[in-house]
What does this fold into?
Amino acid sequence: MGNLDKLFAALLSGTSDNNFSFSDLRHLLTVLEFDERVKGDHFIFSKNGVSEIINLQPLGNKAKAYQVKQVRNLIVKYKLAR
It folds into this structure.
């Protein structure tokens, strides 16, 4: 199992929301071909065919737990996982 597969598994399992790396979350969204805009400390992700926009903000080097959950719900809703 590759590192990317492990990241997807960790995200989809929901057991590490409080301990998910911000850079890993950004990487997953980039791999899923989301477009990224940065405005200050706001990282805004959008994708054609996905009506929601994801707005991420780091908490130190970690992602905020509720934002990890939002990304997971989006991946499940639109069946975006690899």
